[in-house]
Specification:
By secondary structure, the chain is an all-alpha fold. The chain contains 18 helices and 2 strands. Strand 1 and strand 2 form a beta hairpin.
Amino acid sequence: MRKPNIRSARDSFSLCRLGWRAGVGALVLVGCASTPDPYVEDLHASERIADELERDGYYALARHQLRVTANEADAERKGPLELRRCNLFRREREFDLARRCYRDLEQNVLPADQAEARFRFAAVEVELGREKQARQGLEALIVDQPSTEAAEKAARYLLELVGELGADERVALARRLAESLRPQASFDANVRALCSFFLLDVGRVEHARGRWSSSWSALEEGWAQGQDTLWRDELQLARARTARDAERDELALALYRAMLDDRESAWFFGNYDSPYLDNAAWEYGQLLETLGRNVEAVAAYEELINEFRHSSFIDDAAFASARLQLGEGDDKALRRFITSYPSSRHVSAARRLLGDTTE
């Protein structure tokens, strides 16, 4: 290792006024002033020293520097610095020390950083082979601090861990957590999103097991909770699929159509470029075709082609549309397909179909 280069804080860095973002050790420029804030300059420069020490492998010195910096920081800046210090124990695989560090941190920083410390503590438990304790800790975090970013991460991680125990365990846990979050969901958008996430998971697991009624019930409840959350499109698509596979065809068609028609307003929820809309368009066309409503199916496939030009389904839709038009005696669309999509996996089938019509 090369000798660490520890310079005075004031000499090591100079920038316009800086502020810390909530993420661990992340910085964002929030404005410039003619005279830099000496306090913020010094803190940032001190953290730069820790950066160099960590980069060069001097983890003990880096932790010491982070502790010194955190002691001088305000409450908003203290947590991310302390979290980073604890994480260095994990990096050295000093898991017992990491656990102790995170546990101590749960009492001494802002609530969002406390939640993050609890999440990381659970991750260390997994690394130590204590998955049961980790699951208990993650569930407690979700119930105690459901509106935090750490709770959202904990939800995903917890379902991943519980999924290894089987579908029954996963469904029971997700239902239990959704029920416990319900009272807060009525007035907290973050909790509402978390609640709908668990109900969406129940719906998907039950759907995979062919339990249409149970799946539909969970998804309907999730839709009631999650229409104004980032899970909106996934819930709607899952509802359509469950209705389709339960042979509630008209309901499924209505749900697919509603999802496609609502896309212009979905931007408010962050889903204007949703990756699920072209799935809905493709499945909508397929269902219409399955029901023998070929004219409507062609229109649906053409809508996908025109509205979702970067979709992975576009050549599938073009071939399906052309194949249906061939059934009505029109081979022009199929010939255009071969010219327009020469690398499509459907080209060979298209050529065979044209060959059949000319024999």
